[in-house]
Write a structure and sequence with these properties.
alpha/beta; two-stranded antiparallel ribbon; eight-stranded parallel β-barrel
Length: 343
């Protein structure tokens, strides 16, 4: 693989609330250095809903020599709101591209738009739209056509807006459900999760993606930290109950068994498939998910870290042991990813 990366969360923004409340520039720079030096990443995809946070993280990553994938992640926005966000972020991404004079900056024109935002599927919230798809599996083929037409129509407009402000390479973080017209983009990018249902077809699916001819980026892959999470693929976080207004996790819906070894094995196995079939860039999902803290004491349903695909467990209080200056502790997946990327 050319670019070995990870997603770095600057804070998802939904209903005016950030999923990452504290955003300390010194912590951001320290974490990005860990990503470069200890995880052996050569690239980072900075994701979130606030342009200023994205630019700060992108600048810090570029200063460290990392390839930057500048990725605004709109949630529950209208088309007009998304276009405004993309225009702002594209100008900031271009500023970083010019500032670095040769550093690679890729602009990601949104992610999973059909599920995460309004206007592509019926439903007031992501949960409603996902439920609609699951309830109408018999009409899924028909739905795929409708969704893809809406997404491609919007992306044509979005690409034109981004190109007004950004002169580097661009892509879009799609889901397999969306049939994207990749002609305007420099990378074919997919958020790709292996579930038990598609495990026997997964490797062939990756081969088919690469056979299209353009460089392929896996913009998300990974799983959560409980036994059986990998079998659920992209739905592994559904064991958490969420606040209907902010989307913030409240607690788990049952008691689950921690399985850090299973999470690590899932990452290693998918990276082997991606490397075997010639994927250009990979971005594990993700470094840390700050709204899913590790709570080892008390009610097991309060340990939100079990539902987190983060490769570090976020601590509510105090500092970690491996990195005494950081409010998190590496999971087994941290070492697995570092070993894979250093090979």
């Amino acid at each position: 693989m050319r670019a070995k990366g990870i997603n770095y969360d600057t804070g998802f923004l939904r209903g005016g609330t950030f999923s990452r409340e504290r955003f300390d520039p010194d912590v951001v720079r320290r974490e990005l250095r860990v990503i470069r030096d200890d995880l052996h990443c050569t690239a980072v995809r900075v994701i979130g809903g606030d342009p200023e946070r994205l630019e700060l993280a992108a600048a810090s990553a570029a200063d460290l020599g990392l390839e930057v994938w500048f990725s605004p992640y709109p949630l529950e926005l209208t088309r007009r709101e998304m276009l405004e966000l993309f225009a702002d972020c594209a100008a900031r991404a271009e500023r970083q591209r010019q500032r670095q004079r040769g550093a690679e900056v890729v602009f990601v024109t949104g992610a999973e738009l059909s599920l995460m935002n309004k206007g592509f599927l019926p439903g007031a919230a992501q949960e409603d739209r996902l439920r609609l798809l699951l309830d109408q599996r018999d009409r899924l083929h028909e739905r795929v056509g409708e969704i893809s037409a809406h997404v491609n129509s919007f992306l044509a407009e979005a690409v034109a807006v981004v190109r007004e402000h950004f002169a580097g390479k661009i892509t879009y973080a799609s889901i397999p459900l969306e049939r994207i017209d990749w002609a305007p983009f420099d990378f074919v990018s997919v958020d790709l999760y292996r579930s038990a249902e598609v495990a026997d077809q997964f490797s062939e699916g990756v081969r088919t993606l690469v056979a299209q001819g353009k460089p392929v980026a896996i913009t998300e892959f990974g799983t959560a930290t409980y036994h059986g999470a990998g079998d659920l693929g992209g739905r592994c976080m559904e064991i958490a109950e969420y606040d209907s207004r902010t989307g913030a996790p409240v607690r788990l819906n049952d008691a689950f068994t921690r399985d850090e070894a299973g999470q690590a094995a899932y990452l290693r196995e998918l990276l082997e498939v991606f490397d075997t079939h010639g994927v250009d860039s990979t971005f594990a999902f993700l470094f840390a998910l700050h709204s899913f803290p590790h709570r080892p004491d008390g009610d097991p349903r309060d340990d939100l870290d079990l539902a987190s695909p983060g490769i570090v467990k976020v601590l509510e209080h105090g500092r970690g042991n491996a990195y005494p200056d950081m409010p998190w502790e590496p999971k087994t997946a941290f070492t697995a990813l570092a070993d894979s990327y250093s090979a």
